[in-house]
Amino acid sequence: MPLPSLLRNLRLPLIGAPMFIVSGPDLVIAQCKSGVVGSFPALNAREKEGEPVQLELWLQRINEELDRHNQESPENPAAPFAVNLIVHRSNIRLERDIEILTRWKVPIWITSLGARPDVNAAAHAAGAITLHDVINDRFARKAIEKGADGLIAVAAGAGGHAGALSPFALIQEIRGWYDGPLALSGAIARGDAILAAQALGADLAYVGSAFIATREANATAGHKQAIVDAAASDILYTDYFTGVHGNYLAPSIRAAGLDPDALPKREGNLDFSAKSEKPKAWRDIWGAGQGVGALTSVVPAADLINRLHREYRAAAHRIAELGFAARELESTPA
Fold first, then answer.
1. Residue 97 sits in which domain range?
2. What is the total count of domains within the chain?
3. Whose CA, among 33, 100, 104, 210, lies 20 to 30 Å from 62?
């Protein structure tokens, strides 16, 4: 099944993953101008009583700046953008946010924490497509049954809430029955990893942690530097902080006064709210994926995407040469 038209002409087959706190208009605009899909969680647009609706303001700014870019650089059009919706019943903003996404004609809706036919139907009525993130084949089947247009396979090594399955196993099982749009997430921080995702059977790579170490990311300087300084061995997979397994930077856990090698036993639903004295997930305990070792400095998002593009092309040439060598080997008598 071919990709939807709005995902076919990207500069790189890449979606910038929506990251809690970190992803906002600055990063999304920079990603889209550089030819890859940018995204942000709707809940990042926080609101205060009596102030304008922040989500409306963000969408207005993104649309205006991308329209301006397309008028000034028609030969280099911006990629489409996406908004991530938490569709769990606990999200009291969901219906209101769906109305806003519909009004602003957001082209891609990324849905998380439960597949819902009504949300998919709302997206389709607005002319949008939905991509649902999943960590296993069972959830993938449910998402498609309930009307999602595509899947995001969140494999082992992805930053934040992540699955535990190898990308080889996860893509293999999904592709055994599904031929629609499929993105892969999990330790992708180089261009050759993007090509590898496609070799496995994914259409697109879903990249988050690498964009934390960019100037446009809404992360603290300490968080960005911690990403640059980290290696895969600094990533801890635990459900201690939110009740859902995820990958976190061990140095941020130590900075919060906890031992990542000996976290206390979890007792029910821990209170990591802003009013709690305990460290708060995402604000104090930083999420990150196992691909952080590829990041060596904080750079503009455009520079990161340029690097990924160069690496992707170099990997494609390298694979082409290997293919030629394999054909030569096959044609040589034993």
1. 5-221+289-331
2. 1
3. 210
